[in-house]
Amino acid sequence: MKLYEKVALVLRDNIESGLFVVGDKLPSIRQLVAEHKVSISTVQQAYHQLEIESLIEARPKSGYFVCYQRSASVLPATSRPAQRPIEVSQWQQVLEVLLSKEGVDTIQLQHAMPNMTESTLKPLLKKMSDLMRHQVALSLPYGDIKGALVLREQIAQLATNSGCVLHPDDLVITSGCQEGLSVCLRAVTNPGDIIAVESPSFYGSMQAIQAANLKAIEIPTNAETGLSLAALELALEQWPIKAILVTPTCNNPMGYCMPEADKKRLYQLAQSYDICIIEDDIYGDISYQLPRPKTIKSFDEDGRVLLCSSFSKTVAPGIRVGWIAPGRYRDKVTHVKYVSSSMCPTLPQLAIADFIHSGRYNKHTRRVRLLYKQGRDHLIQCIKKYFPQDTRISFPQGGYILWVELNKHYDVVKLAAQCKQGEVSIAPGTLFSATGKYRNCMRLNFSEQTEVERERGIRHLAHYIKKQSIVEGHH
Q1: What pLDDT digit, counting tens, does each position of 297-319 carry?
Q2: 121-359, what's its fold?
Q3: First to last CA, the chain
Q4: In sequence order, what are the residues at sequence separation of 6 or more whose Cβ sits closer than 8 angstroms to the Cβ of residue 247?
Q5: Where is the HTH gntR-type domain positioned along the sequence (predicted)?
Q6: Over the stretch 222-249, which tens digit does the pLDDT of each residue have?
Q7: How many angstroms separate the Cα of 390 from the Cα of each of 72, 382, 393, 470?
Q8: Domain 73-78+87-117+362-472 - what CATH class?
Q9: Handedness of CA 404, 221, 210, 312 (dihedral sign)
């Protein structure tokens, strides 16, 4: 642990234990320098880390103050899905979301899209433009089936941040994370096999399960710590589960980061039942925690973890550059990737490789992390202000989406249809279940809007919630 992390840990413990409460002024930088016998920059880094985590705020010429209010929001309840294997449905609803075209004035709270307006993306756009102008011939021949070596080298380097030791040859480049998940599922299963998933779970991975003719068993999931390991173990004892598909870091749709000890225990469970884990780490690089949380893959001793990620959520989805670290399944994954789409376009790979190598990817993720954290706090504030008092809200630890649970009386599917006419779009909770559960829930994003737009969108939603309440006779 670095020095600044030790200082941050002490301060965090003091805040979370109630030694400092909301509004309290924290010790000055000079006081902490003397107390911990560290440099000024170490204390500044510690305070910056706590700012990212929304525990404290800096007030110009006044110092640092506690703003930690996590307990003020009630987190969504631990989910209770039916614990038996089921066939995934919901494709029609997912297709509607994918095909929906919002109007110019629609406030988009529906799609998990990154902020693509920041100036930190300009060097990437320039590099893509230069490649198209001066090296377009590189895009014409077939490339390496595993992907451009220069990109695999950069990804292997990046992976050290999450505790992984990877060689460029351990990696296969894909067309986004969606292809990665689909390839992995096909590489490790046969039709009819059972896959354990979090509940709620990302609809894209659920549709990949359906497309591979597999069954899903939904495991109860906690909004703060993730997949229930006790429930998973019971399911493993009861059913011939072939693989576990999880998004343990900055989860979609709930935003939690599974504690490191639980990630290790999950890996050990997979070992004892001799099954594999497909780990979706697409939001990992925009976790608010520093150092960045470890992946389950970082504990992998025998190659049973297939790690998938991409630059779709950290940079831009249209680039379609993803990757897999498939461990012992490398040959099978390479074969499935070949029959699925052969190779990926070369130029976007070269542009992303340059973006990482130049240090600009890190600069970009640092910038947007701060914006997303501010967006989260503002969206939660708006929901508390306008939504019914018994609303439950997740508290994302990274990324830019959160989960909202309304009273069971409400029907968010109807709400979503009404809202479209009212210039706001949302993702109803039913999309995130194999069987259309979570009808009283929704996923909202906080990446693209201005604060004014975001608040207007939540006011619109609150209006329709109230309207539904009156029509249905709920109070």
Answers
A1: 999 999 999 999 999 999 999 99
A2: Aspartate Aminotransferase; domain 2 (3.40.640)
A3: 51
A4: 198, 201, 202, 205, 279, 280, 281, 282, 283
A5: 1-69
A6: 999 999 999 999 999 999 999 999 999 9
A7: 12, 14, 10, 16
A8: alpha beta
A9: positive
